[in-house]
Amino acid sequence: MGCGKEFDSGNCVADILKDIVDAQNDIVENCCETSCDESISDLLGDTDRRDDDLDTVPIILYCKDGCKPFKGFGALKERRNKIGPILASFIFRVKKIDNDHCAVLELLIKDNENTGCDHLKCPTDQSTDRLRATGICLTVDLDCFCHVTCLPAIDAFGRN
Fold first, then answer.
1. 29 falls within a domain
2. Which InterPro entries match (predicted)?
């Protein structure tokens, strides 16, 4: 039996959260200014916040084990037989998803520096205004993640 008043999904937390959402919706319109839906709508021009240069919905993925943000690593090619510095980021651009629950993610970095922060210690200047695509891609198993955070849509290819 669920613990929510109206719902009985077999998941106590889900049932209570559904009750909370219903109660909140009775009081105020339940719109998010920043969410995956909003970022996708901005990217597609479905809102009045559309910018013609938007090309990316940056995401942060959280691992199932310990629910920490996933940090990806990679390196740029400098020249033949030479690997550039290792870059790391918590922020990605989704490039492709296949039927086996695998995704190709591209690291987004800020001013050619590692982005993101330790999950417990974040500086206050973690803006996304200068996030750029790197061309560094990694393949991940989507079954390893428990949630995704979408950041506001950006121009990751520097066209603005």
1. no
2. Spore_coat_protein_Z/Y (IPR019593)
Low-confidence ranges of the chain (pLDDT < 70): 1-11, 13-14, 17, 27-31, 47-52, 111-129, 159-160
User: 1 to each of 7, 16, 22, how far by Cα in Å?
Assistant: 9, 12, 19
pTM recorded for the entire structure: 0.74
Examine residue 40 and state whether it is found in any structural domain, yes or no.
no
Distances from the Cα of 7 to the Cα of 28, 39, 66, angstroms: 21, 30, 27
Q: Which domain holds residue 146?
A: 53-150
Residue 124 belongs to some domain of the structure: yes
Residue among 145, 156, 150 nearest 40 (CA): 150
Residues 6 or more apart whose CB falls under 8 angstroms from that of 142 comprise 97, 101, 102, 103
